[in-house]
Design a protein that fits this description.
single chain; 2 domains
Length: about 140
């Protein structure tokens, strides 16, 4: 791991500790940091101690790394109402302007997201926008 840490320009001891901790979670089947596999809708929710298909040990090379940056996916975007109309900063709809999917701020769900949710959100609010546009004409 130290070679990878050097390539990435990160602390080798910190990377080793992170991998060790994660591998312990994979062995016990309990992710103490992010709770992967604990929700009923998680892929492969754990059946018993030590088994969690959502976790696997980091043990066999080659290892790769990449720099990740926070994104605006779940916390930014254009504020829209229930008809997908973009709202002015004074919270009134801007006529003829709509946003759906990842272009709109997601206010219809709480912490985190599940697979396919952004597609469903885009389709739902796209449909609502189309109905609103139709009704305006």
């Amino acid at each position: 791991m130290s070679a990878l840490a050097g390539t990435l320009g990160i602390d080798a001891q910190g990377l080793d500790e992170t991998v060790r901790r994660f591998n312990e979670f994979a062995a016990t089947g309990v992710d103490e940091d992010f709770h992967r596999g604990e929700k009923r809708w998680s892929v492969g929710a754990p059946k018993s101690q030590g088994t969690n298909p959502s976790l696997g040990s980091i043990a066999k090379a080659p290892f790769y790394g990449l720099r990740l940056h926070p994104s605006a996916f779940a916390s930014a975007g254009l504020l829209a109402n229930g008809a997908a109309q973009i709202l002015h900063q004074r919270h009134h709809p801007i006529e003829g302007l709509y946003a759906v999917g990842n272009a709109a701020a997601h206010n219809e769900y709480g912490v985190g997201y599940q697979a396919g949710h952004s597609l469903t959100s885009g389709m739902t609010f796209g449909y609502l926008a189309a109905l609103h546009i139709r009704d305006q004409n």
